[in-house]
Write a structure and sequence with these properties.
- It comes from Camellia sinensis (Tea plant).
- This protein is α/β, with parallel strands linked by helices.
- It has 7 domains: 174 residues, Rossmann fold (3-Layer(aba) Sandwich); 128 residues, Glycogen Phosphorylase B (Rossmann fold, 3-Layer(aba) Sandwich), CATH 3.40.50.2000; 66 residues, no CATH class; 182 residues, Ribosomal Protein S5, domain 2; 164 residues, no CATH class; 34 residues, no CATH class; 226 residues, Alpha-Beta Plaits, CATH 3.30.70.890.
- The chain has 38 helices and 40 strands.
- Strands 15, 16, 17, 27, 28, 31, 32, 33 and 40 form a 9-stranded mixed beta sheet that branches. A 5-stranded parallel beta sheet has the order 3-2-1-6-7, with helices on both faces. Strands 12-11-10-13-14 form a 5-stranded parallel beta sheet, sandwiched between helices.
- Strand 22 and strand 23 form a beta hairpin.
- Helix 26 crosses helix 27.
C-alpha cells in the first residue's frame, strides 16, 4: 500500500484499493493468468491498472468493467528462441539489457510519475523487475507471483542478472503457485492454487459451434512460435482425429484434418471440446490442462516425453493414443485467481530482500553450472541434490585418491594404456562403472542426469572391450589468432579435458535405442543382401542358430531312419537299419544312481532305452558284428557351447555332478518326462549284430533380459555321425512314401535363399510381406516409433475376446525376423554428459549409410546441412564429423556400429578450445577402436577439417595441435604454416600461467573473429598486389637491365608478391612499404570488384559488410615477432627483468587484439585488475608476483592468460582478482590452473569390465 512520508502508516482502506499490475512480455500465458486475478480484484471492488503488451481482447473478453484500465507498455522482454523448441538464454539476457537496463533511469522516472498520478496503493509485478524498483521509489509496497526469472538467467552477463536481482530485492513476500521451482531467496511465501480461466461453454456446446461430432477425436495444437517452414501433414493424425491449430498465421495452409482457430479464440472453451492437447510447456497451458483434466503431450529436453524428431516429423499417433487412455490424476484447487485477489493480512519479519536474494543467485549458478567446474558455491549448498535434481559438483573431500583407485581396479581391467595418475580419467572410469547400476535401478528417471545416464548405459555391451581417449583444452599463452596467418604460437594444454569412450560392435550385437531400432525397421532392405555366408553348409541354418538350444560341437549327428517298435516277445524284422535292445542286454560298470524314477524315452522318433538303476542311456544302431557291442559314451557335458549370457552358475561337469544339484536334477527329470509324455518311449531287446549308440546330457542356463536366471535346461543328445545312413533312409522312405528331390534350397523357414560365387545370401522380403498380409497391415505406412517406449499393456476387462494365438505367433515371428537380421543397422550412437544444463539434446544417433552417397561419402557441405537441421543436436557435428573426415581423407569405411560416450570438463565458450578437445578425443578413440595409426600431428589436421568443413567454424589449427601434441608443464611451439611443431618449451620452475574466465561467452563462429580473419586475408591480397606493382615498376624503370637493380630488393619484392602467410612479412618492411597504402576498412563489395577473391577457403566475404583491414593485417606480423621474443626470453636467466619483459610482450599482444576489435569489457577489466595488482605501491619490486596478461584465443570475451611467479603469494593475488571482479560484475571468474598431457602423449585405454561389484 501507499506509505505516508515519515511513518509506517498506509493511506488507503483495504475495501477499495488502486492496483498497478505490471505484466511481463515473457509469454502469452502470463497475461491469461493475470486476467483471472484482475477479474477477482475488480469483483472485490478494487480498481486495477494493467500495464501489458498483450492484445486488449485478452482482458476485455473476460472483463467488462469501468474499473479496468489498460496501458499498452512492456518494460521487459520475452525469451529469444534459437528455434521453436530452444530458448537462447544469452540472447534473452542481451535483449533484456537493451529493453530495461540501458534506459533504466528514464523508465524509473516515468513509472514513478505514473504511479503517483493514478495514486496506486499496491503494485503487483508478474514478473517485471524494474516495476518493483519503481514501486519502491514511489513509496508503494508490492507483491510478485513468479521468482523463477532470477534463476533462469544465463551463465553470462552477470551484471545484468544482478541488476534484475537488485530490482527484485524489494519483495515483501512471494505468492507462489503450484509447480514452482526451488526459490530459497523468498522464504516468505504464500501458496495459492492454480490460476485458471473458467469455461464459457460446455463440451457439447463448444463442439456444436465448431461443427464437430462426438464421434471425432479432437486434439489442440497449442504451439506458439511454430518452426519456420514447418508444414503440417494429413498423415500426422490417426484416422478419425481432427486437430485444432492455435496461433497459426493467416497465410498458413492446413490439410483437411487440421482446423485453424481464430487468433482471439477463447482457449478454455476449446479445451472443453477436446480430448487431448499437444504443444510446448507453458504455465497457462499446463494449468488449464491439469484443472480440466485434459491429457497434455509436450516436448521436453531432447527426447523424453515426446521425441523432438517425432514432433516435427508427425509421428504423433502413439502419443495421442497413449494420451487418451490416461486417467486424470490432479485433484488440487483451481481457484488461485480468487485466493490471490482476496489476500490476507501478512507482516514480514524475515531478513532483508538483498540478504535473501543471495540464495537465489547461488541457486542460479547451481542450476546453470558446467560439469567438472568448481563454482565456489557455499559448503551448505554443495549437496542440494535432492531439491535441485541436478548432479552435485566436485567430489567431496572424503573421496580420496585411494578410494578412486580402489573403485577403478575393481571395475575395469586395463588391457592397453596407462592412467598416468590422472584423477579425472579415474573419475571417468568410475562414471562408466556406475552406468550399469543406473540402467538397472529404474529410479528417479525423471531427473535429466538420470535419463542421460540411462541412455549411455543402454548403448554399451559391457562384456566387450571399450576404448577410452582423453584430450585437454588449451590456454593460448601467446600467438592467438595469428595462427591462420602463419605465426609462431606458444600454447599450454590445461588440466581440464574431454574423455570419449567408444565401442565398436557387429551390427547384430549393437544395442540400439528403441527409436533407432524402429527407424531401421521402417527403412527396410528390399532385395539387398543382409547376411553373407562365406562358407558352404549342407544345411542353410547352422546349429548355433537354433532358438535357445545349446549345441554339442563334439560330433555332428546324422540321424538314421525312424524305428519300427518291437516288443521283446515279438521280434520284428525291420526294413530300417535300427533295432531295439532290452535293458537286460546293456551291461555297464557305472555305479547305480540313487533315484530310479527316470523314465525311458524316445525323442524325435528315435527310441531310447533306460537301464533301471544304471545311468547309461543308449541309442541302438546296426553293426556288422554278430556280438553285442556296448556304448562307452561319456556323460560329461559338451566341451564347448555357443556364447550366451554370463552366469555365475557353473555347469555340471558330468552326470553325477548334475544329480548333486536339485536344480539340474529337476531339469533332467523334466526332460525325461517330456519324452514319455510325447509317446516316444518303448522298450525292446537288442538283437544280435546290433550295437547301442550312446547319448549324453547337455546342460545350459537360460537367462532373462536383465541377466537373472530364468530356468535350468538339460537336453539328451545322441552321439555319432554315420553319413551312409542318409541315402539308406531316403531309399527306405521312397518305398513307403512318394518322395521327390527338390534340388537346391530356395526358401527355408520363410527366408529366401540365393546363391552366387560370393556365397549364400538370405533375404527377408517375402517373409515380411507375408507377415504384413497375415496381420492386415500390408497397406500401412512406416513409422519411426511404432510403440511408445515403456508403455505397459494391461487387460481390458470389458473388451471382446481376441485370438490370443494370433498375437503370440506375431511376437514370435517379429523376434525371429530381428534375430535373422545381423546387419539390421550400422549405427552411430552418442551421449553427451551435462547436456541437460544447456540447450542441446543429450543423445544423437544416425545410420552410417547417411554419410554415403552411393559408393562415395557425401560432401562436407551436405554434412554441414545434415547436422544443422536440428539446433539441439548440432553439437554432434564435432563428434560424428570425425567419422566423415576419416572416410573422406583416409578412405576408411566403417563396417561396424559405433557407440560413443562424450564427457567434457572443458567449459564451453571460454576460449580454451572446448570444441577442439571434443574433436581430438573423439577421433583418437575412434582411431584406436578401429586400429588406425594416425600421428598426433596428422590427427590434429584432420580434426581441423571437422571444425572448418563439417561444423563450419573458420578456426586455425593451433587448438587441435595443442590438444593432440601437447605435454604437461610445457608450451607447444608451433609455426602455423600450416602446422609445423618445432618443439616443446619447458615452463621454467619459477614461472606460472593462469587462465581467468571473464564470464563473457566466446564463440569461434562469431562475427568478430570471422571478420578479423577476412580483414587479414584482404590485407594480404592487397599487399601482394602492391608488391607486384612495385616489382613491375622497378623492372620497367631499369629497361630490362637486371644489373641496374638491387638484387636483394628484387628478391624481397618477388617474395612479397607471392606472400603465402602474412607472418612472413617482416614488420619493418610492412611499415616502410605497405602500412600507409592499406585502408583502415573496406566494404566487401568494393574489394571483390577489384580483387575477385581473398583466397581464404573457410570464410566468405559479405558484400554489404565493412571489414577492418589495416589493424587485422598488422596484428599477425607483429604478433609473430612478439612470440619469437617471448620464446627466447623463456630460456634466459631467471630474473625480475625476464618476467617484466615477458609480461610486457603479453600486454602488447592484448592491446593489438583490442585494436582489431576483439576485446570485451570483461577481459579489459580483468587485465586492468592484473595491472593494478602489479603496480600496487604496497609491494616492493622484489615482492611483485604478477607481470602481464592478455586475452586469448579468438577474443571477444572468453579467458585471459596471466603470467606471474610460481609462488603462494601469486595464487593469493589471483584469488583477490577473482573477488574484485565479482564485486564489480557479480560474476566469480572460473580459474584455470595446471597442465596435463595431450591426446598423443596419453594414448588410449583399452578396457574390459570386470564382474560388476554389488552397489550399496
Amino acid at each position: 500500500m501507499r506509505i505516508e512520508d515519515g511513518s509506517d502508516q498506509v493511506s488507503a482502506s483495504t475495501k477499495h484499493l488502486v492496483f498497478a499490475y505490471y505484466v511481463t512480455g515473457h509469454g502469452f500465458g502470463h497475461a491469461t493468468r493475470v486476467v483471472e486475478v484482475v477479474r477477482h480484484l475488480i469483483l472485490a471492488g478494487h480498481d486495477v491498472h494493467v500495464v501489458t503488451g498483450a492484445p486488449d481482447f485478452v482482458f476485455t473478453t473476460e472483463i467488462q468493467s469501468p474499473r479496468l484500465f489498460l496501458r499498452k507498455l512492456v518494460l521487459d522482454c520475452g525469451a529469444v528462441q534459437a528455434d521453436a523448441l530452444t530458448v537462447d538464454r544469452l540472447a534473452s539476457l542481451e535483449k533484456y539489457s537493451e529493453t530495461a537496463v540501458k534506459p533504466r533511469d528514464s523508465i524509473l522516472a516515468t513509472e514513478v510519475e505514473w504511479l503517483n498520478s493514478i495514486k496506486a496503493d499496491l503494485v503487483v509485478s508478474d514478473v517485471v523487475p524494474v516495476a518493483c524498483r519503481a514501486a519502491a521509489d514511489a513509496g508503494i509496497r508490492w507483491d510478485f507471483i513468479y521468482a523463477e526469472y532470477v534463476m533462469a538467467a544465463g551463465n553470462h552477463h552477470r551484471s545484468i542478472v544482478w541488476q534484475i536481482a537488485e530490482d527484485y530485492s524489494h519483495c515483501e513476500f512471494l505468492i507462489r503457485l503450484p509447480g514452482y521451482c526451488p526459490m530459497p531467496a523468498f522464504r516468505d511465501a504464500i501458496d495459492v492454487p492454480l490460476v485458471v480461466r473458467r469455461f464459457h461453454k460446455s463440451r457439447k456446446e463448444a463442439r456444436k459451434e465448431l461443427g464437430i461430432g462426438e464421434d471425432v477425436k479432437l486434439v489442440i495444437l497449442n504451439f506458439g512460435g511454430q518452426p519456420a517452414g514447418w508444414k503440417l501433414k494429413e498423415e500426422y493424425l490417426p484416422s478419425g482425429w481432427l486437430c485444432l491449430v492455435c496461433g497459426a498465421s493467416d497465410n498458413t495452409e492446413l490439410p483437411p484434418n487440421f482446423i485453424k482457430l481464430a487468433r482471439d479464440v477463447y482457449t478454455p472453451d476449446v479445451i472443453a471440446a477436446s480430448d487431448c492437447m499437444l504443444g510446448k510447456i507453458g504455465y497457462g497451458t499446463v494449468s488449464e490442462a491439469l484443472a480440466y483434466k485434459l491429457p497434455f503431450i509436450f516436448y521436453f529436453q531432447g527426447g523424453v516425453e515426446m521425441i523432438r524428431r517425432d514432433l516435427l516429423t508427425g509421428q504423433w499417433k502413439p502419443y495421442l493414443e497413449r494420451a487418451v487412455s490416461l486417467k486424470p490424476c490432479y485433484e488440487g484447487g483451481i481457484n488461485g485467481g480468487e485466493d490471490t485477489a482476496v489476500g490476507k493480512n501478512y507482516a514480514s519479519d524475515k531478513l532483508s530482500g538483498a540478504r535473501r536474494l543471495r540464495d537465489a543467485i547461488v541457486l542460479g549458478y547451481q542450476l546453470q553450472r558446467v560439469p567438472g567446474r568448481d563454482l565456489c558455491i557455499p559448503d551448505w549448498y554443495a549437496n542440494a541434490e535432492n531439491e535441485l535434481g541436478r548432479r552435485t559438483g566436485s567430489p567431496t573431500a572424503n573421496m580420496t585418491e585411494n578410494s578412486f583407485h580402489m573403485n577403478y581396479t575393481e571395475d575395469f581391467e586395463i588391457l592397453h594404456g596407462d592412467l598416468q595418475g590422472l584423477q579425472d580419467t579415474m573419475n571417468f572410469l568410475n562414471s562408466l562403472a556406475e552406468l550399469d547400476a543406473v540402467n538397472d535401478s529404474g529410479k528417479n528417471t525423471e531427473k535429466p542426469w538420470m535419463r542421460e545416464r540411462m541412455a549411455a548405459a543402454g548403448i554399451f555391451n559391457w562384456e566387450e572391450e571399450i576404448f577410452v581417449a582423453r584430450a585437454p583444452g588449451r590456454l593460448d599463452v601467446v600467438g592467438g589468432i595469428a595462427d591462420y596467418s602463419g605465426s609462431l604460437v606458444l600454447q599450454m594444454p590445461i588440466r581440464e579435458a574431454c574423455h570419449v569412450a567408444v565401442q565398436r560392435n557387429d551390427p547384430s550385437k549393437q544395442r540400439l535405442w528403441k527409436h533407432a531400432q524402429s527407424r531401421q525397421n521402417a527403412k527396410g532392405q528390399g532385395s539387398t543382401p543382409v547376411l553373407q555366408i562365406s562358407y558352404f553348409l549342407s544345411s542353410p541354418m547352422s546349429p548355433s542358430s537354433l532358438q535357445g538350444e545349446p549345441w554339442c560341437e563334439e560330433t555332428p549327428v546324422s540321424l538314421p531312419s525312424p524305428s519300427v517298435i518291437a516288443t521283446p516277445e515279438t521280434p520284428v524284422s525291420l526294413p530300417s537299419p535300427s533295432v531295439i535292445a532290452t535293458p537286460e542286454t546293456i551291461i555297464t560298470d557305472d555305479p547305480p544312481i540313487e533315484n530310479t524314477d527316470f523314465p525311458s524315452a524316445v525323442k524325435d522318433g528315435k527310441v531310447y532305452v533306460r537301464d533301471k538303476g544304471r545311468q547309461k542311456v543308449t541309442w541302438v544302431q546296426e553293426t556288422n558284428s554278430d556280438s553285442p557291442l556296448l556304448s562307452s559314451s561319456s556323460d560329461e557335458c559338451p566341451k564347448s557351447s555357443p556364447s550366451g549370457p554370463v552366469s555365475s552358475v557353473s555347469l555340471p561337469s558330468n552326470f553325477q555332478d548334475a544329480l548333486s544339484t536339485p536344480e539340474w536334477k529337476h531339469a533332467m527329470m523334466e526332460e525325461m518326462r517330456a519324452l514319455a509324455k510325447n509317446g516316444t518311449w518303448e522298450l525292446a531287446a537288442l538283437p544280435k549284430g546290433k550295437r547301442p549308440v550312446g547319448c549324453k546330457w547337455v546342460y545350459t542356463v537360460k537367462h532373462k533380459a536383465d541377466g537373472s536366471i530364468e530356468r535350468y535346461k538339460a537336453r539328451l543328445v545322441a552321439k555319432g555321425d554315420d553319413v551312409e545312413e542318409v541315402p539308406r533312409l531316403k531309399e527306405y522312405l521312397a518305398n513307403e512314401f512318394e518322395i521327390k528331390d527338390l534340388g537346391k534350397l530356395k526358401y527355408f523357414l520363410g527366408i529366401e535363399v540365393a546363391r552366387s560365387k560370393d556365397g549364400i545370401f538370405i533375404c527377408q522380403r517375402k517373409y515380411v510381406l507375408d507377415l504384413l498380409k497375415e496381420t492386415g497391415m500390408l497397406g500401412s505406412k512406416a513409422c519411426d516409433t511404432p510403440l511408445e517406449p515403456g508403455l505397459k499393456l494391461s487387460e481390458d476387462e470389458g473388451g471382446e475376446p481376441v485370438d490370443r494365438g494370433r498375437y503370440q505367433r506375431l511376437v514370435g515371428k517379429l523376434i525371429y525376423l530381428s534375430h535373422s537380421r545381423p546387419d539390421i543397422a550400422i549405427a552411430v550412437s552418442m551421449v553427451s554428459y551435462g547436456s541437460e544444463l544447456s540447450n542441446r539434446s543429450p543423445t544423437f544417433d544416425m545410420d552410417l549409410s547417411d554419410f554415403m552417397d552411393g559408393e562415395q561419402p557425401i560432401s562436407y557441405q551436405k554434412a554441414k546441412e545434415y547436422f544443422a537441421r536440428d539446433p539441439s543436436q548440432r553439437w554432434a557435428a564435432y563428434v560424428a564429423g570425425v567419422i566423415l573426415v576419416l572416410m573422406m581423407e583416409l578412405g576408411v569405411r566403417f563396417k561396424n556400429s559405433i557407440s560413443m560416450l562424450v564427457s567434457s570438463a572443458v567449459p564451453e565458450g571460454k576460449g580454451v578450445s572446448s570444441s577442439a578437445s571434443v574433436e581430438v578425443a573423439s577421433m583418437s578413440a575412434i582411431a584406436a577402436a578401429h586400429g588406425l595409426d594416425i600421428s598426433p600431428r596428422d590427427l590434429a589436421l584432420l580434426c581441423q577439417k571437422v571444425e572448418n568443413h563439417v561444423v563450419g567454424a573458420p578456426c586455425g589449427v593451433m587448438d587441435q595441435m595443442t590438444s593432440a601434441c601437447g605435454e604437461a608443464n610445457k608450451l607447444l611451439a608451433m609455426i602455423c604454416q600450416p602446422a609445423e611443431v618445432i618443439g616443446l618449451v619447458a615452463i621454467p620452475s619459477h614461472i606460472r600461467f593462469w587462465g581467468i574466465d571473464s564470464g563473457i561467452r566466446h564463440s569461434i563462429g562469431g562475427a568478430d573473429y570471422g571478420s578479423v580473419r577476412v580483414g587479414a586475408f584482404i590485407g594480404r591480397k592487397m599487399i601482394k598486389s602492391i608488391a607486384s606493382a612495385m616489382l613491375s615498376q622497378s623492372l620497367s624503370s631499369a629497361n630490362g637491365n637486371i644489373d641496374e637493380l638491387n638484387e636483394d630488393g628484387v628478391e624481397l619484392l618477388q617474395a612479397e608478391a607471392s606472400l603465402d602467410y602474412l607472418c612472413n612479412l617482416l614488420p619493418h618492411r610492412y611499415e616502410a612499404l605497405y602500412c600507409k597504402q592499406l585502408p583502415d576498412s573496406m566494404l566487401g563489395e568494393k574489394f571483390l570488384e577489384q580483387f575477385v577473391d581473398h583466397d581464404d577457403p573457410v570464410t566468405i566475404i559479405d558484400h554489404k559488410r565493412s571489414y577492418g583491414v589495416r589493424a587485422a593485417a598488422r596484428h599477425p606480423m607483429y604478433e609473430n615477432f612478439r612470440v619469437k621474443a617471448f620464446k627466447a626470453l623463456l630460456t634466459s636467466a631467471a630474473s625480475d627483468e625476464q618476467l617484466t619483459a615477458l609480461g610486457e610482450l603479453m600486454y602488447q599482444c592484448h592491446y593489438s587484439y583490442s585494436a582489431c576489435g576483439l576485446g570485451s569489457n570483461g577481459t579489459e577489466r580483468l587485465v586492468q585488475l592484473v595491472q593494478e595488482m602489479q603496480h600496487n605501491k604496497m609491494y616492493n619490486t622484489e615482492d611483485r608476483t604478477l607481470y602481464g596478461a592478455k586475452i586469448t584465443g579468438g577474443g571477444s570475451g572468453g579467458t585471459i592468460c596471466v603470467i606471474g611467479r610460481n609462488c603462494l603469494r601469486s595464487s593469493q593475488h589471483i584469488l583477490e582478482i577473482q573477488q574484485r571482479y565479482k564485486a564489480a560484475t557479480g560474476y566469480l571468474p572460473f580459474l584455470f590452473e595446471g597442465s596435463s598431457p595431450g591426446a598423443g602423449k596419453f594414448g588410449y585405454l583399452r578396457i574390459r569390465r570386470r564382474n560388476p561389484p554389488k552397489l550399496q
